[in-house]
Write a structure and sequence with these properties.
The protein is α/β, with parallel strands linked by helices. The chain is built from 14 helices and 23 strands. Helix 3 crosses helix 7 and helix 10 (268-280) crosses helix 11. The longest helix is centred in the N-terminal third of the chain and has 21 residues, at 96-116. The chain is globular, with a radius of gyration of 24 Å. It binds nicotinamide-adenine-dinucleotide. Nicotinamide-adenine-dinucleotide binds at residues 147-152, 174, 176-177, 211-212, 215-216, 219, 230-232, 235, 238-239, 253-256, 287, 386, 388, 414, 461.
Length: 499
């Protein structure tokens, strides 16, 4: 199916994607696949005002009933997994398996959120006063503003929206200007679920089409209780202080610079497969992509040789072909940034293998590359920064402590992994003195997290956690309650006041 048919099947009104000033080009071949009308800044305020009204009604709907809406959304997504996944491929350039995988992630978070809707619990706390009870209650927070990046155009919305909705909050979403079509499709599917659900207030989920200025408008709106923003560290550096200045809450999911350490005892087959998926999958355009390989001297030659062979046979091509492993970069800017990084790596002593443009004759308006492997003498500036492209820097080490220090010595702190069969090395990596990232793995790569765990990272990755575990708490406010069921009024800390 072509884009037009996919949009039709997913319930997007064709008028929404024609004649507007936001041109969307498929990274597959550069073809124009949509011209969307952008919202105006006032539209953002109006959307937030509608959401605020919706909040007043939605917060009193019992959470398991709110979960029912997400159960219905999960059903719609199951029906349209194929079509939505394909649209992700057209708009973000992901290979079919990864486009489908992204929609599966949405289905998984729906299931998780439905269960969660019956588990929004607080603690009961022992009171120091006789005849008193203390407890905490969790209440809906308010309007949630969601800002997303192009590379997970649908999953990140669902991570936030499914949790926000069961927690009692409406969502106003500003998707990436590079992937607005999939956003319209998500909204259409949400509306199908709403129609079946029946009595939900208007404005529970809304989409704002436009560029960064509209994101800024959302960030500055005092009625947005939580801004959940996914994107570059540059974006987070702007968003974080602006939200803090009005004492709003933010959840930042920013850039990563993820490393895999391979030790002498590692299973090199496993390691090579984990590194390949992490470094070249999604053409290196995941926040959790493997960007650094820190390998022990004794196994470095063998591992690098295996990787070079595997890189040589990783098919670069149209992501809609089942045999393709590496699809295109999102646009020319991404290609230029990759070439610039490779030049810098060379200037800083690196030896570059791969990284050249591919398929320029077949797709003159698209940006395919062979993934690059770069041997570096040490962790120079370019290695310490995130380039959103398939570049894997290889560093060698001789001492395990030095390897962990290298892993940690970057500004970002998202995902990390060690391949080892040595219990001491594994446990050290997981310990307080080990990796400083939010995701720390053993014998599995850096990318491809499950939804059940809390997702996010430290340092310039922003510190946010979303998706599984107890991440729901960020979408709620906590009240501490003390109830006196005695006939006395004892004060805390034994204070005597008056008689
Ligand atoms: P980007 O920062 O260019 O844009 C992300 C979103 O932020 C877009 O919707 C954009 O319009 C908006 N935006 C930009 N500046 C803004 C501002 N000042 N105020 C409000 N909104 C603003 O990122 P991108 O190129 O789309 O995505 C790639 C980046 O996202 C990479 O750095 C990647 O690591 C990161 N990312 C992180 C995660 C994570 O969970 N940690 C997940 C996916 C992507």
């Amino acid at each position: 199916m072509q884009v037009e048919q996919l949009l039709d099947r997913l319930g997007v009104d064709p008028k929404q994607v024609k004649g507007g000033s936001l041109a969307v080009h498929s990274p597959i071949d550069g073809q124009l696949i949509g011209e969307l009308t952008m919202h105006q800044p006032e539209d953002v305020d109006a959307a937030v005002a509608r959401a605020k009204e919706a909040y007043k009604a939605w917060r009193t709907v019992p959470a398991p009933r709110r979960g029912e809406l997400i159960r219905l959304l999960g059903e719609e997504l199951r029906k349209e997994k194929e079509a939505l996944g394909r649209l992700v491929s057209y708009e973000a350039g992901k290979i079919i398996a990864e486009g489908q995988g992204e929609v599966q992630e949405m289905i998984d978070i729906c299931d998780f959120a439905v269960g969660l809707s019956r588990q929004l619990y607080g603690l009961t706390i022992a009171s120091e006063r006789p005849g008193h009870r203390m407890m905490e209650s969790w209440h809906p927070l308010g309007v949630v503003g969601v800002i997303t990046a192009f590379n997970f155009p649908v999953a990140v919305w669902s991570w936030n929206t499914c949790l926000a909705i069961v927690c009692g909050n409406p969502v106003v979403w500003k998707p990436s200007e590079k992937s607005p079509l999939t956003a319209l499709a998500c909204q259409a599917l949400f509306e199908r679920a709403l129609a079946r659900f029946g009595d939900a207030p208007e404005g529970l989920s809304q989409v704002i089409i436009g560029e960064r200025d509209l994101g800024e408008r959302l960030v500055d709106n005092h009625d947005v209780a939580l801004v959940s923003a996914t994107g570059s560290t540059r974006m987070g550096r702007e968003v974080g202080p602006r939200v803090a200045a009005r004492f709003g809450r933010s959840l930042l999911e920013l850039g990563g610079n993820n490393a895999i350490i391979v030790t002498p005892s590692a299973d090199l087959d496993l390691a090579a497969r984990g590194i390949l998926f992490g470094a070249v999958g999604t053409a290196g355009q995941r926040c959790t992509s493997t960007r650094r390989l820190i390998v022990h001297d004794s196994v470095a030659d063998e591992l690098v040789a295996r990787l070079r062979k595997a890189y040589g046979s990783a098919t670069v091509g149209n992501p809609l072909d089942a045999s393709t492993l590496v699809g295109p970069l999102i646009d020319k800017d991404a290609f230029d940034a990759m070439q610039k990084a490779l030049e810098q790596a060379k200037a800083q002593g690196g030896t570059v293998y791969g990284g050249e443009r591919q398929l320029a004759d077949t797709y003159p308006d698209a940006w395919y590359v062979s993934p690059a492997l770069v041997e570096m003498p040490d962790q120079t500036d370019i290695v310490r920064s995130e380039t959103f492209a398939p570049i894997l820097y290889v560093l060698r080490y001789s001492d395990y402590e030095q390897a962990i220090a290298l892993q940690n010595d970057v500004p970002q702190g998202l995902s990390s992994a060690v391949f080892t069969n040595d219990l001491r090395e594994a446990e050290t990596f997981l310990s307080a003195a080990g990796s400083d990232c939010g995701i720390v793995n053993v014998n599995i790569g850096t990318s491809g997290a499950e939804i059940g765990g809390a997702f996010g990272g430290e340092k310039e990755t922003g510190g946010g956690r979303e998706s599984g575990s107890d991440s729901w708490k960020v979408y709620m406010r906590r009240a501490t309650n003390t109830v006196n069921y005695s006939k006395e009024l004892p004060l805390a800390q034994g204070i005597q006041f008056g008689d």
